Structure formats: C-alpha cells, structure tokens
Amino acid sequence: MGRVARAAARPAPTVIDVTENVLLEAAGLHKRYGGVHALSGAELTVRAGEVHALVGENGSGKSTLLRILSGQVRPEAGTVTVGGEPAEFRSPAEALRRGIATVTQETTLAPDLSVAENVFLGRRMARRAGVIDWAATRRQAGAALARLGLSIDPSVPVRRLRPDQRQMVEIARALTFDARVLILDEPTSSLTDDEVASLFAAVRGLRDHGVATIFVSHRLKEVYEVADAITVLRDGRTVGGGSAVELDRPRLIRLMVGRELADALPSATTETGDSAALRVRGLSLTGAFDGIDLDLAPGEIVGLAGLLGAGRSELLETLFGLRRPEAGTVEMDGRPVRLRTPRDAIAARIALVPADRKLQGLVLRMSVRENLVMAATSRAGRLAPPRARRELPIVSSAIADMRIRAHSSRAPVGTLSGGNQQKVVLGKWLSVKPRVLMLDEPTRGVDVGAKAEIYRLLFDAAKNGVAVLVSSSENPELLTLCDRVLVLFRGRVAATLTRDDATEARIAHFAGGHA
Q1: Does residue 269 register a pLDDT over 80?
Q2: Is 58 helix (H, G, I), strand (E, B) or coil?
Q3: Backbone phi, then psi, for 456, in 5-degree steps?
Q4: Of 415, 404, 368, 420, nearest to 33 (Cα)?
Q5: Which stretch of DSSP H or E encloses residue 65?
Q6: pLDDT, tens digit, for every residue of 294-349?
Q7: Which residues share a beta bridge with 25?
C-alpha cells in the first residue's frame, strides 16, 4: 500500500520551456575507440531545474557521452557549452570547476572515514596552518546533507550507512563544489524501493533549487517516476526525446531498440517434466532462511520473490555450495546430493549466475573466450595447456547463440557493455548443459533490448529441459518469466503463486508479511 501511495502522490513533472534556461548543451559529439564509433553526432540539451533522463541500450553511447561531460575523455568533434559559454574539459577537475559533478553506482567513499571527512575529502578546512577545523567541517557537511533532507550525524563512519545514504553523501560532496549539473549514473541499481524513494525525494528537492540532474537508468519505471525530459541514444546518435509527459513508454522503447519490444519477446509457454530435477526439503541456514521446501521440474521456470533480506540470494548460494546449511536435504533427479562446495554443485550440473557479474561472474581482464570456456574446462588439470580445437566450437556457438556483440573473442570481457557481459556469464554456464540453472537478478543493469535477449535465452533453456530458478527484485520480470513464484518473507516461503494467480499486488502483499 505504501508504494502505491507514493506513486500516486508523485508531483506532476515540470513542463519544459524549450526556449529558456539552457544550462548545458552538447552538440555534434563524435568519439571513436579504434574502429568503433562510440558517438556519431550525439546531442543533449539540459535546462536549469530539470531532471533529464538519458536512456539507450547498452553500447548506445551513454557512458561515452557522460565521460565527455565529466571531463574523463575528450571528443574528437563537437561542442559543449555550460551556461552559454564554450567548455573544453581536460580533466574531471575542470568539469567540477564548471559545476558538473558525477555520482556513479559504485560509490567512491572511504568507508572508515566519517561522513564529514568524505564530504570534504581532499579539501581541508583549516583553522590555522596544519590544524583542521573539525567543528566547521562537520557543520558544513551537515548543511550539505540537510539540502538533501538527510539528517545523519556527520561524525559517523560511512560504513554504518545504508546504500542510499552513501549515495546521498556522494551527492552532498558534489553540492559542496557548487554543482549546477549533477550526473547520476545508474544510482538505483543496488537500492531497495524505499531507498529509491528517498533518493528521488532528494533529486526533486535539488530541482526546486535550480540544480539540473542528468539521470541514467535502465529501469524505465524510475525514468517516468522522476524525469521531466528524456533524451534517447542509439548507436552513438541522438534519435529522439522530449517531455516525459508526452513521450509514452511504447514510443520510448521503439526509439531505444529500433523495433517493437513485443517482437523480441518469445512465448513464455514451456513443457515441464513429470519428475523433479531438484527437490529441496527443510533447508535451513541460521540468519538467512528456515525450512525451505522447493521442487523444480525440467523445463520449468520458478521465481523467488521477496524484499531485500528475505533470503533469496542466500538460498541460491547454499544450493551452489557457497554456504553450508544447518539442516535439510537436496536431491537431484531423485538422488541425494551433498553440496559442500561449488565444485560439488558443478559436478551435479547445477549452475549459478550471480547478482554481481563483475565481481563474481567474470574475470574482467580475461578475454571473452577465456570467460566462456571457464566452466567447461574446470575439470582440466591446472597445468594442462588450453586446447584451442576443443574451445573454439564452444566459443563460436556461445557467441552466435547468445548474440554477444564483441569486436573479437579475444577482447577483454571488461570492454563489453553490461548486457553483453551478462550474456557471457549465461553462455559460460549454458555451454556445460546444466540440469539446474539458477540466476540472481539476471537483468540488473541491462537495457530493455538486452533484457529481452536474456529472457529468450532462459525460455530456450527451459524448452531444452533445463530447470530454471530465478531470484529477482523486479516483480514484472518474474511475472514475464515464471511458471510459479515462491514469495519469501524473513527466510520462509510465505506463498506459492501459479502463473495464473500471480500479480504484482499479490507478490507485494505476501512479500510484506501479510497472511
């Protein structure tokens, strides 16, 4: 009910006067990396007191455009003006001096320092030579936080803050530089719904004080919740945009992907096997979940829903051998298995696509090829040389089936877009033909086009007899994918909903602990 009330109470988007108050303008920006055109004439116009969403598929050029605006890279052609005056940023420090500050999804805070120390990191407020005026530091940090509606003690260590509060500290630090343009790059990717609401309230407060915000997110629901205007990039070009009030969701998706998204989504119907590929009884892990019963049939896609801390991720990690349960049994195809390590899980043909692909799913400095064959060659001797003849079919097939966009299979996987990185993680596991495929937040940080591709891959896997278990905080995703949804509340199964019974409202109802 709380979420519904917040959505209903959202202030009406600001009506944009397209002739006045232009604060930042980028025109005709071009940038190449080798033979790849990252930007080919991109344009962006942002006005004072506006929340401006920048959207597009992975690889559309958003990151390159933001790097230019924040002084991290220089364009080969095109112009940037701030307040009507030409601007050429040779470094992020120059962009800051012109009032452009950036906050990314990966915070750059020092967790063991206080909030006040992080707000003024690198800038001393000296009372006299060599002596810092800590009282003034805390006072001014508190004032910056107050502008965001945040009342926390500036003396507390950052590590004690929630993720959304850490984002606020980053924004407060930007405000102390008198930022006129705030770039928020995927700021909500690791936040709960309540934390997102808190962040958006702060963004609206800045808008009311004339600060412009460039908001980047793959979550279109959030774009429409907070943005006044939208600009769409595709293949390095600005292909459209306008007022968020006038640009409806179907048209926005067409601009982003160049086609109707419905055309890219396959049918969700699957044929399930009669026996259980995975059977879990009474699985318990202190502090995470208790008494979990779960049956997963071949060809079935089952979802795990629940609020942050409900035990979804911990359950998947336990089934993959990363955690040791205190009680319960697990069977694969009717035979008991002991999953004490990931090696045990892999031997039982259980695969896990983790929530954090960069830290847990990939080795970013290794090539696309090396990441794709990592699971398939896991049983080879440690000193055994790679066998190109055996690896080449796996790599070629995975790149084709996954539709992975990469300059070369030898390119570092870290150079790929988020959606293509996720496809590599998925391809790595599908190449070993798992019986059970588990995924934690499978489309986090990917665009709508890549999301449709990942859905296609999961449906194809299910049609080929793979049992799929999906944990997601996005209820519409579960409704699209799943034959059944298990809703967890405080580590217990609160409800099991069939495809016909499941709705966003019912999932939210049981996830909140209601009977």
Answers
A1: no
A2: coil
A3: -60, -40
A4: 415
A5: helix 62-69
A6: 999 999 999 999 988 899 999 999 999 999 999 999 999 999 999 999 999 999 99
A7: 45, 81
Alpha carbons 296 and 302: distance in angstroms, whole number = 7
Of 34-43, 186-195, 229-238, 449-458, least confident by mean pLDDT is 186-195
Taken as a whole, the chain contains a residue count of 515
Give one DSSP letter per residue of 90-140, joined into a string.
SSHHHHHHTTEEEEESS----TTSBHHHHHTTT---EEETTEE-HHHHHHH
Average pLDDT over residues 70-79: 93
Please give the Cα distance from 296 to 332 (Å, whole number). Answer: 10
Q: Could you please report the per-residue DSSP string of 319-387?
A: HTTSS--SEEEEEETTEE---SSHHHHHHTTEEEE-S-IIIII--TTSBHHHHHTTTTTTTS-TTPPP-
Report pTM.
0.69
CA 334 to chain centre: 37
Residue 215: strand pairing partners = 53, 184
Pairing of the two strands 350-353 and 436-440: parallel
Residue 45: beta bridge partners? 25
Provide the b/e sequence for 482-491 (b: ≥16 CB within 10 Å). Answer: bbbbbbbbeb
The answer to whether the CB of 406 falls within 8 A of the CB of 374 is no
What's the rounded Cα separation, in Å, for the pair 430 and 372? Answer: 9
Taking residues 403-421, what's their average pLDDT? 86
CB-based contact 445:416 (threshold 8 Å): no
Radius of gyration for the chain, computed over Cα atoms and rounded to the nearest angstrom: 24
Question: Rounded to whole angstroms, how far apart are CA atoms 163 and 507?
Answer: 24
